[in-house]
Design the sequence.
């Protein structure tokens, strides 16, 4: 079994602010042969293309073409974005009734521009997207990407703005109904990155464990578990690179756990902050991490929080999700979700190296329970 798994296709999002899928089929992808599935793309010996069955305006194409040199890329008509990274904005599904939208951790802007395409397609007078980015340097990239993608007319970028310092009750945000949270994380789901092979945190679920199958790597025998709990030294020291480039030296399981704990503390704080926006009715929370500590555990803690209970925030159940996400088969880990079947089913996961050919990813949606807040509906 190979670590990297099957050949990775190139995922491309067609940016409908600038173009249409049929225009791109006739121009950028004119030499690509249409096939049915992503597996057909991967197996094809020719240049192949398939339209994704889950995410609108997303295609998988054979690797090997440098799309960054194409006119479509330069003009913002196409955006190179992994399929799993398209899940949060699609799941958030902002509609004109939701009002304005916040992207709390926005650079480089893949999801901001995808939100732009969604709101643009649904109204001649799109809602405002407020995009926050704490890192000034990364905010410049965000600004450039939003401009090239054609969303600058309705996207307000707050460069160097820490989302945690934004006041939810500020009049500027009184119409914000939907928030996308894609905070910094361990980046362990990024394709091509080794997920710390020397370290086996018991909380990294793998596909299948949610179905209750015994899983040797995550459910070792009792003595084995005890041994694993003891801090194991790792030689040489592993450098953990977060998805936003921050490097942390990790030389033991204890240090890895401490790093995950620090990240998940920040992620939960961010999520609870988002839940305080007065008109908010939808939130998505996502990471490109495989660790349950940054994923299902954050979701469970948020649901149990005072702010979620008093404001009526609930998990967005699978059956209430937008069709493509409801149909996506890879769900949260049951054990990591505390045995709560509904929460596990509501959580959306992706694992790198499997037949879906996407990056490792996690996303969950939250909605405000209208019965808990009748005055605001
Ligand atoms: N959503 C982005 C995309 O799809 O292109 C990727 C976001 S990346 C995972 C996380 C970003 O959040 C980083 O650029 C980081 O600088 C920024 N960030 C971290 N903490 C933040 C905070 N408190 N407020 C605003 N931005 C923050």
Sequence:
């Amino acid at each position: 079994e190979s670590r990297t798994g099957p050949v990775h296709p190139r995922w491309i999002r067609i940016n409908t602010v600038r173009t249409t899928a049929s225009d791109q089929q006739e121009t950028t992808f004119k030499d690509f042969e249409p096939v049915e599935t992503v597996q057909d793309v991967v197996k094809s010996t020719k240049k192949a293309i398939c339209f994704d069955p889950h995410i609108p305006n997303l295609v998988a194409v054979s690797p090997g073409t440098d799309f960054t040199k194409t006119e479509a890329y330069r003009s913002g008509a196409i955006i190179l974005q992994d399929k799993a990274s398209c899940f949060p904005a699609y799941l958030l599904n902002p509609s004109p009734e939701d009002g304005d939208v916040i992207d709390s951790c926005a650079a480089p802007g893949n999801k901001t521009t995808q939100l732009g395409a969604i709101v643009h397609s649904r109204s001649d007078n799109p809602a405002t997207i407020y995009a926050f980015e704490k890192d000034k340097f990364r905010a410049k990239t965000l600004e450039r990407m939003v401009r090239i993608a054609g969303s600058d007319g309705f996207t307000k970028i707050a460069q160097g703005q820490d989302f945690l310092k934004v006041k939810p009750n500020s009049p500027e945000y009184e119409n914000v109904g939907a928030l996308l949270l894609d905070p910094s994380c361990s980046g362990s789901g990024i394709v091509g990155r080794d997920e710390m092979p020397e370290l086996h945190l018991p909380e990294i679920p793998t596909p299948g464990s949610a179905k209750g199958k015994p899983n040797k790597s995550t459910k070792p025998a009792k003595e084995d578990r005890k041994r694993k709990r003891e801090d194991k030294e790792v030689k040489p020291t592993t450098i953990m690179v977060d998805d936003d480039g921050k490097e942390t030296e990790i030389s033991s399981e204890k240090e890895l756990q401490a790093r995950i704990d620090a990240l998940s503390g920040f992620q939960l704080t961010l999520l609870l902050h988002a839940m305080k926006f007065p008109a908010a009715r939808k939130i998505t929370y996502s990471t490109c991490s495989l660790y349950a500590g940054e994923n299902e555990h954050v979701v469970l803690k948020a649901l149990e929080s005072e702010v979620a209970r008093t404001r009526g925030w609930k998990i967005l159940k699978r059956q209430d999700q937008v069709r493509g996400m409801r149909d996506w088969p890879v769900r949260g880990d049951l054990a990591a979700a505390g045995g709560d079947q509904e929460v596990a089913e509501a959580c959306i996961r992706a694992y790198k190296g499997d037949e879906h050919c996407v990056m490792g990813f996690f996303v969950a949606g939250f909605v405000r329970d209208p019965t808990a807040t009748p005055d605001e509906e």
